[in-house]
């Protein structure tokens, strides 16, 4: 299963300045929690904008196919093949 | 088995919801309508922008909040709102302070960004760019001052902020703009409130958080209205609004973010502003009423009127009066010799407020700061005018 992940609001700096990446999973059923666990493994550990301790930093807007992930139980949201997950952050200032 | 009822937008009850706004699920269309309505309502009712041809100076930094502000201002001026097309007959002018001169010094990988296309072509608004170093007789003095300030904490960022403030107010007055709009949303204002209190700016509570705050410019007693029309909105609202409306790429280089990035071993790089933003963000995530509770509580705080209101020439805020020994000095009390020396041998030590003294704490070449040596003539003029 492929999930497209895009980063906005400067979060791309945590992932080698890539604004969009594709994650591939062997499992047929994937939840948002699995995506976050995968992102943790590839996130630059020196950049602290994405993760706060072991969790997603508060204030990051997470969208699944342009819809708020809070509508789908957040980490428990089930994903489909080719779903687009977006992480957008507020930058300090601005 | 009971099937879960599909959720519908709380407002139109027709479309599928896309975002949660104040605990209600709403669709994209209703969300855009909500943001536009809140902005217009804020401008008209809270900021008192009701006269025809009223002039607004919108301060734009390239960040998310001010981008949303410019976009919304453009929609109300040109009647291009997605919903309610009623036009506001106001004159909007966008001011951008170009910080490239400082960015290049402090950020190795810095690349300048050009917002002319966004403001002029997309939003069709008059656009003025002012270089931050332009008010200095010798621009390199500005860099020297920043290097002399402590690299930890928010000193450098505060200093840049006050220079920008001087540029904004001076520009507004010279060009006849009585209303100056800033883009901070409610969540940012709540964080700013705590941050100002932490730095000793209790008297600035009102200017920091009100929709509409009257400010008398100390140099010529001109009156300015400082407006925060996005106060009803949260970070999430701004982000989602921009996601739907704008294809603009946000800058990777925000000066405030990078000025304190040098400090590695403290939470939020030792910057109180960053720390309190993170604090409010975390609270807001767990308790959706946080921001509005903080802001409504701030409105209830009353400030004891001072018999004599003097202003600090650096930050233009009211210079508080000392009431007890704890407030007497802000420099490290073990440095009493230095304090006495500065008081006796510099021209403006007694005119600088508590918070600006804190900003200058640990700076090098303190005498130059307290003599305003090399400072923009505008700031020296204000300092000479103030009692």
TrEMBL record, chain A:
Subcellular location: Cytoplasm
Record bears the keyword Cytoplasm: yes
Pathway where this protein functions: tRNA modification; 5-methoxycarbonylmethyl-2-thiouridine-tRNA biosynthesis
Secretion signal span: none
An example Gene Ontology biological process: tRNA thio-modification
Glycyl lysine isopeptide (Gly-Lys) (interchain with K-? in acceptor proteins) cross-link, chain position(s): 94
Pfam families named in the record: Urm1
Functional summary from the UniProt entry: Acts as a sulfur carrier required for 2-thiolation of mcm(5)S(2)U at tRNA wobble positions of cytosolic tRNA(Lys), tRNA(Glu) and tRNA(Gln). Serves as sulfur donor in tRNA 2-thiolation reaction by being thiocarboxylated (-COSH) at its C-terminus by the MOCS3/UBA4 homolog. The sulfur is then transferred to tRNA to form 2-thiolation of mcm(5)S(2)U. Also acts as a ubiquitin-like protein (UBL) that is covalently conjugated via an isopeptide bond to lysine residues of target proteins.
Family: Belongs to the URM1 family.
HAMAP family: Urm1 (MF_03048)
Protein name: Ubiquitin-related modifier 1 homolog
UniProtKB/TrEMBL annotation, chain B:
Entry GO terms, CC: cytosol
GO BP field: protein urmylation; tRNA wobble position uridine thiolation
Highest taxon in the source lineage: Eukaryota
InterPro entries listed in its UniProt record: CTU2
Record key words, sorted: Cytoplasm, tRNA processing
GO MF assignments: nucleotidyltransferase activity; sulfurtransferase activity; tRNA binding
Compartment(s) where it occurs, according to its Swiss-Prot or TrEMBL record: Cytoplasm
Pathway entry: tRNA modification; 5-methoxycarbonylmethyl-2-thiouridine-tRNA biosynthesis
Similarity section: Belongs to the CTU2/NCS2 family.
HAMAP family: CTU2
PANTHER family: CYTOPLASMIC TRNA 2-THIOLATION PROTEIN 2 (PTHR20882)
Role of this protein: Plays a central role in 2-thiolation of mcm(5)S(2)U at tRNA wobble positions of tRNA(Lys), tRNA(Glu) and tRNA(Gln). May act by forming a heterodimer with NCS6/CTU1 that ligates sulfur from thiocarboxylated URM1 onto the uridine of tRNAs at wobble position.
Name of the featured protein: Cytoplasmic tRNA 2-thiolation protein 2
Organism whose genome encodes this protein: Paramecium octaurelia
